[in-house]
Amino acid sequence: MYLESIDLSFIQPCTTNSNRIRIKGSFSRDVEELFPYLNTYLKTAIYNKEGKTLTFNYSQKIIIMYKYEVAISKLLNETDAFETLDYLKEIINECDSKRNEIIPNYDMRKLPSPIDIYKYLPKINCGKCGVSTCLAFATKLINGSFKLSRCVHMNEAGNEKNKEEIETILLMLGYEL
Ligand code: SF4
After folding, report:
1. How far is the CA of 125 from the centre of ligand 1 (A)?
2. Closest C-alpha among 54, 4, 6 to residue 26
3. CA 137 to ligand 1: nearest atom
4. 115 CB under 6 A from ligand 1?
5. pLDDT tens for residues 105-159?
6. Euclidean distance between the first and the last CA atom of the chain, given in angstroms as a whole number
7. Given the DSSP bridges, would you call strands 61-65 and 21-27 parallel, antiparallel or unpaired?
8. What domains can be seen in the chain, in order of their start residue?
């Protein structure tokens, strides 16, 4: 078997939704070589070759794979966590067993644009984040040079849903929140 186990190593409330949990798991081996194959095999995957991450959705959950570990957010509870880890192990082993039939894809399938993030920002161009417009801030988030927390207005009441939408996009890009 290619991957023997994924050990649960960390559980915390989700940063995007306090009713859900996020976890980390450790792979029993380095799985990075499989990322280009999983990028083809999983139709929603985003492979970030530079960042060495592969991210994909499973139901509402966001799974970010690194070389030796995985981070999963938006899980319902611990049972869901263990079921999702089992699912991931199965997918990884299935993909490996079909490796000879799969053409590896080294490209990032879909990069969200700054506009995809801008539409959820306050759009008041106050400049408090260090750039003069919300659109410039969105560009910084997409390229990973700024954290969302630099926008002082995102934690204001009424912005909860928009914040969650942006955090989901950033997670899909493989960024830590
Ligand atoms: S702090 Fe927020 S609202 Fe102000 S410019 Fe930056 S992104 Fe826009």
Report:
1. 5
2. 6
3. 7
4. no
5. 998 776 788 999 999 999 999 999 999 999 999 999 998 899 999 999 999 999 9
6. 33
7. unpaired
8. 6-101 (3.30.310.10), 114-172 (1.10.15.40)
How far apart CA 133 and CA 12 sit, in angstroms, is 34
Reduced to 3 states (helix: H, G, I; strand: E, B; else coil), residue 33 is helix
Select from 115, 120, 123, 128 the residue to mutate for testing ligand 1; criterion: most ligand atoms less than 8 Å from CB: 128
Q: How many whole angstroms separate alpha carbon 137 and alpha carbon 130? A: 8
| pTM: predicted TM-score of the whole model, two decimal places | 0.77
Average pLDDT of every residue of the chain: 92
**E-strand stretches of the chain:** 6-13, 21-27, 46-48, 53-58, 61-65, 69-75
